[in-house]
Amino acid sequence: MELRKPPPVRRLTGNEGYTPRAEVAPPPPEIVAHSAGSNGNGHRPSSAFAAPSSRAMRDTVVAIDRMQVEDLSVSYGNRPAVKSVSLPIRQGEVLALIGPSGCGKTTLLRSLNRLTELTRGASASGRITLDGVDIATLEPTALRRRVTMVFQQPNPFPMSVFDNVAYVLREQASRRPRRAVVRGAVRDALARAGLLDEVADNLDHPALRLSGGQQQRLCIARALAADPEVLLLDEPCSALDPQSTRLIEELIIKIREDVAVVIVTHNLQQAYRIADYVAFMYLGELVEYGGAHKTFGSPREQRTREYVSGAFG
Amino acid sequence: MDEDIFLEPDRELGFLERDRGLSQDQRAELGLGALVFVVVALLVAMLAFVLHEAWPSFAHNGIGWFGGGGSVDQQIQAIFTSGDLKTAPVYTFHAWPLIWSTILITIGAVAIAFVASLFIAVFMVEFAPPWLRRILEPVVRLLASVPSVIYGLAGVLVLVPFIGNHLITQGEKASVTPTIQLSGSSLLAAVLILTVMIAPIMIAVFADGLRAVPRGWLEGSLALGINRWRTFWKVGVRTARPVFVAGTVLATARALGEAVMVSMVSGGVGFAPNPVDGLIFFFEPSRPLAATIIANTEELNSPPMKHTLYAIAAVLLFSSAMLSVIGWAAKQPMRRYGVVP
Amino acid sequence: MSTVPTAAVPKRSESNASWRLSDRIGLGLAWLLGLLFCAIAAAIVVYFLVEGIRYLRPNLLVTNPAPGLSEGQTGGFLDPLLGTVIVGVMAMAIAVPVGVGIAVWLSEFGRPTGLARLAESAVEMLAGEPSVVLALFGTILFTVRELGFLIQTSHGIVLGQSFFAAAAMLSLVGLPMVVASTREGLQAIPSHVREASYAVGKTKIATTRRVLLPAARPSMITGTMLGLGRVIGDTAIVLLLLGGTLTFGSANSTPLLGMLRGTGDTLTGYIYYNAPTGDGNQPSKAYAAAFVLMLMVLALNLGVDFVVRRSQRAVRWS
C-alpha cells in the first residue's frame, strides 16, 4: 500500500523566534542536558513567563528526564489494558500517546499519577519513577501535586475563576497562604495558560459561565498553579472548537519548557502539530516510540504505518 | 388555487370540536387545570378559614398574644370554662412560654441533627466501606419513615425514666418542687427524641444531594493533589449546599409541627424553661405549641377555646410557610455559580 | 538511555504532609458519628423487636379491643389494625388520582404560569404543613351540615368525626409525595420520546396516558407507597377526626357505609392511648401494636426498594 503522508497542516503562527520543527533535527534519545540558570527544582521558576526561547536555546535541545515508565502492565480484573510498556518522559518535550480507541493510552496516562488506583479491580505491575523515585512509594496526594492532570471534559469547579485557581494553592499548603501571595500566583497561572487577558477585568466571574475553550484553559491554569513537574492531558481538545483547540495547542508548546507534557490524543493532526515524541499504542502494547517527525514520516513498524496513514482508526 | 384545498376539513368534526373548537388536548388541559385549581382553592380556603377562626383570639390579646404574663395553664383553663355560654368568654392568652418551648426544642433538635447528619451523610456517601454503606442506606430510609408515635413510645418508656431516675438528682427535684416537677419528661428528652426522629430525614436528603455531585469535579480535585477528605468537603459539600438548606428547612418544618411525640415526652406543663437555672434548665418540663393543641382537643367545643387553638394553629401554619419561603430564597444565590438546586 | 543522576535534581520543597490536622479530625468525626448512628439505629430496632416479640401474641391481632382494667381484659387490637388499613386505602384512593392529575398538569401543560407556580408552592407548603393544622381544619370542614352524609350525625348535629373525615384530611398528607414522585418520573422521560409520539399525530393527552404514565409507573408506585407510609404513621389527624373509639362506632346505615361514616381508631391512635401518657396506659399492648406498625412500615419500604430496583433494570432510554 502506498504510504500516504499525513495531510499538510498549517504551521502554528504567532511564536516569534520559534524555530519551525523541520529546521531542527529532533534530538536522538541519548542526548540530554541540564538547563542552566534555573532554580533548584530543575525547571524554570513559574513566575517568569518567558518568551519562547531564543534560537540558540532551541538548537541545544534541553530535555530533562522527569519520569521513567519501566515495564508497566495494568489490568482491570482479568482484562489487560496496558502490556509491558516502557517510556521516558522528559521536560522540554511534548510526548503524544496515540492509538485507536481502547488501546490503553488513557490507562497509561492515568497510571502516571496513580488515578488508576481509584478504579476498583485495577492491578498493576512494573515501575514508574519520578525523578528516580518509585511513585508507588510516594503518597498519592503528594505525587498528584507534582504530576497534575487535565481531563477531556472541562471541569471547573462551581466557583469564580479566581477561586478555581486559588483552590489549588489554598488547599495544597498546610497553612493557608497569605492573600497577596495567592493573588500573585493566580495571575501567574492564568498568564501561563494564556487566559489572563480575557478574564483579568473580572476574576470573580463564575467559572461555569466561561466558554468551553476558556474553561479548559482555566483547568490548565489550575493544573499549572500547582507548579507541577509533569502535566498530563487527556484529549483536552476533543470537546472544543477549532479556535480553542489552536489556542490550547499554542499554549502547550509554550509551557513544555517548564513542564514535561504528556498528551493523549486520537487526533493525528494534532499529534503531528505539537508533539516532539510520539508513542503509538495498539491493544495495550507500545508498538513504536520515537521522534514525531520520524514516526510520522518513516515509521519503523508496519502497524504504525497503517495507523498513521489512516488504514484503521 | 391550491390553497383552497386546505380550507376544507377532510372529515366531519366531532361535537365539541365543531361547536366550541376544543381539541382533545384542550379538553384535557381544562379538566386537569380545573382539578389543580380546586385543590389550590381548597388549600387557600383552609388558610383563610384558620385565620378567620383565629382572629378573635388575636384581636382580644393584640401583640400580647405572643408575650408573657401569667400562667399559661391557668389561662387555658379559664378560657375553657368561660365557654359554657353562661359567662362572658375569656380570651386572655399569653403564649410566650409555649413559644419559647417551641423555639428551644425545635432549634435544639435541628442544630444537633444538622451537624450530625452532615457528617453522617458525608461518611455514608464517600468514606464508609461498601459493606457498611449497604447496611446504612436502607436503615436510614427505614428510620425516616417510622411513625412519630413510635419514637414517642420509645422516649416515654426508655428515655424519660432514665432521665428521671438517673440524671436528675433528688436535690434538684426538691429545689423546684413548689413550682414544677422534674420527672424526666423534659426539654432534654424532647430535644433528643426529636433529633433522632429528624436526623434520618436530613441524612437521606443530604446523601441524595452529595451523590448528585458530578464525579468529574471530585476526580479533578483529586488529580490536583488534594486529599480525599478535603476534596469531598470543599468541592462536594460546597456544591451540595442548596440541598443542605432544603433538607434543614424540611426537617425544621417537621420538628415544628411534631405534636404527638413531643407531647409524650416534653412534660405537658406550660412552663418556660429558664436558662438561668443552670443544669436544671435541661430537665425542666414544657410544652410547645403543637403539643398544646393536641392536649386540648377535647375542649374544642368551647368557642373561646376553639379560637385560641386556631390561633395557635395559625402561628404554626405561618411559621412553616415562612420556612418554605426561606428555603426557596436561600437557593437563589446558589444559581449564580452554576450550582443548580 | 542515560538518565540524569538523581542527586542533581533535588526534591522540590514540600510544605508538609498532605493531610492537615483538621482533615484528620474531620474524618475521625465522620467515622465516629457514622458508627454512633449505626449503634442508635440498631438499638431502636432491636429494642422494638425484642419488646414486640415479647408482648405480641397472635390472638391480639384478631381480638377486638374492649374496655377493661387489666391486661387480660382489654383484648387485642383488631379494630385499630383494620382502621389503619381502611384509612390508608381510602386516603390514597383520593390522593393518587388527584396527585397524578396535578403532576401531569404541572409537567405537561402548566399554563397559565401563574397558576402553575401557585400550585407548586401550594403543594410544597402542604408537604411541610404540620398535620395538627390539617386536623384542626378538618374539624371545621366536617361540622358543616352539608357534609352530613359523610359523617355520623347525632340528633341532627354533625359530629365531625368519621373515617371519611379522617381519610379526606389524610389524603392531603399523602398528596405531596405522590405529586413530587410522579413529576420526577415524568420529567425523567427524555423529550425525544414525547416528540416521537407527537410526530405520529398523537395528542398530548393520549401520549400522556399511553406512553408517559406507564413509563413513570415506578415513580408513581414509589410516591404512593411513600405517601401511604406517611398516612399510616400519622397520629394527629386520627386523634381529632376519627373519634378514638376502641371499636367501630358505626352509624345507622348500610354495614360498610355505616362503618365508614362512624368512628374508630388506628394503630397509631391505639399506641398513643396505651402509652404511659395516654388514658389506657397498657405498655404491653402498645409495644405489640408498635411492632405490628413497624412491620407494616418495613414492608412498605421493602416494597419501594423492590419497585425501584426492578425499574432500574427494566427501562433504558437510549
Question: Overview of this structure, please?
Answer:
- The complex is a heterotrimer of chains A (313), B (341) and C (318).
- With 313 residues, chain A is an alpha/beta fold.
- Chain A has 11 helices and 10 strands.
- Chain A has one domain (21-157, 213-308): P-loop containing nucleotide triphosphate hydrolases (Rossmann fold, 3-Layer(aba) Sandwich), CATH 3.40.50.300.
- In chain A, the strands form 2 sheets. Chain A has a 6-stranded mixed beta sheet with strand order 6-7-8-3-9-10, with helices on both faces. A 4-stranded antiparallel beta sheet of chain A has the order 2-1-4-5, with helices on one face.
- The longest helix of chain B has 38 residues, at 24-61.
- Chain C has a single domain, classed as Orthogonal Bundle (MetI-like fold), CATH 1.10.3720.10.
- Chain C contains 13 helices and 2 strands.
- In chain C, helix 3 packs across helix 9 (217-232) and helix 5 (131-141) packs across helix 6.
- The longest helix of chain C is centred in the first third of the chain and has 35 residues, at 21-55.
Structural class of chain A: alpha/beta
* β-strand number of chain A: 10
Helix content of chain A: 25-40%
**What is the percentage of strand-forming residues of chain C?**
under 5%
CATH topology of chain A: Rossmann fold
Tally of individual domains of chain C: 1
- At the first level of CATH, the class of chain C is Mainly Alpha
Number of continuous helical runs of chain A = 11
